[in-house]
Amino acid sequence: MTTIDTTTTDPTTTSGAPRGASDRSDLKRNGVIDSDVHPNFVNGIRDLMPYMTETWRTRLGISGADWAKGMAAAQFTLPLDYLYINPAGAYREDAARPGMPPATDPEFVAKQLLDPHRIYRSVLLSGQCLGIGAMPDGMVAATIASAYNEWMCERWLQVDERFRGAIVVAPQDPEAAVAEIDRMADRDGVVAVFPLGQILMGEKHYWPIYEACARHELPIVTHPSGTENVFAKAPQMAGTPTFYLEWHTALGQIHQSNTLSMICHGVFEKFPNLTHVIAEGGFLWALEVMWKLDRDWKGLRNEVPWLTKPPSEYLLGNVRFTTQPFIEPHDPRHLAPLMEMLHADRVLMYSSDYPHWDFDNPDRALQGLSPELRRAIQVDTPRAVYGDRLD
């Protein structure tokens, strides 16, 4: 974990943003791309009221009295992490503007995160709609997803050109998800799609969503939701943890299962230009997955005859991982061989996870890597994944 510097360090302007054409050109070529920043609501789901019809506001109970927010069956509540609480706090106190929750003011986020670290683009992954797949009603999920996407575009993407966004879709309803992708794909600033639900991601339930993403050249992004094993329709871990320490350490379980599922079901054979970005789900587990999957495939390929090459090649070609929280081995000499075995120059993408407690400062988190590898992780690989949508 590294500390956020709230002062502006870039002297080009008082705000820290580059002012001249040469500065902008240099930032475009060399600026960091952050693949995981969480925008938050000020008033919870009520922030989405302007983007819903009155019928839906009434159905969700969000247009009534303020006291309804804390009452059972009185107002719909977004599925969030209510049971696994970090005793030290899940958010950085210095990421909160006075009188507001962390990461609720895009101008403050730009000044605190983007300006001092010369971040060229920052990909927004919803802070409070990550658990959308846990909702039992697919129509409710689709309505909230559409409202969130409009909110993100208006309140964030239109405020600072450096923000880019992953739209949320309802994985419970592939038809509605495809319609939402088609509706939002050409919006300025949209660079990815977030579809995670309970069903393992190789199942054909998701394939219409993948077809739409591939057609629009949009990667899919998955991220821990905080609802794992708490809600019946949430992604399921291998057993229900008791402590935050257990839950936080085990976040890679679901992503490992989903990666195996997508490869073995032939998702990347069917959609060869589809990229799956795993955010905050760890990445070293991919080493064992590649080794063991390739070994077993040699004797079991008749079970999955649609796979035309070793499974590790699908992972290396179609799966990408964000770095936060980056590994810090006790012996720094161990880092380089791990990165080489992982093909880190191909599969890793920098992420800060702002505004959470374990934020990774782009100036410090990757210091143990060579300049060439740092550039690949912070610039080249995310550029290859998000393409021209970044510019």
From TrEMBL:
InterPro entries: ACMSD (IPR032465), Amidohydro-rel (IPR006680), Metal_Hydrolase (IPR032466)
Annotated Amidohydrolase-related domain residues: 139-387
Example GO biological process: secondary metabolic process
Listed Gene3D superfamilies: Metal-dependent hydrolases
GO molecular function terms listed in the Swiss-Prot or TrEMBL record: carboxy-lyase activity; hydrolase activity
Biased composition annotated in UniProt, kind: Low complexity: 1-14
Keyword Hydrolase: yes
Region listing for Disordered, in residue ranges: 1-33
Basic and acidic residues compositional bias, start-end: 21-33
Keyword Lyase set for record: yes
Family matches, as SUPFAM superfamilies: Metallo-dependent hydrolases (SSF51556)
Keyword line: Hydrolase, Lyase
GO cellular component entries: cytoplasm
Domain of life: Bacteria
Name this polypeptide is given: Amidohydrolase
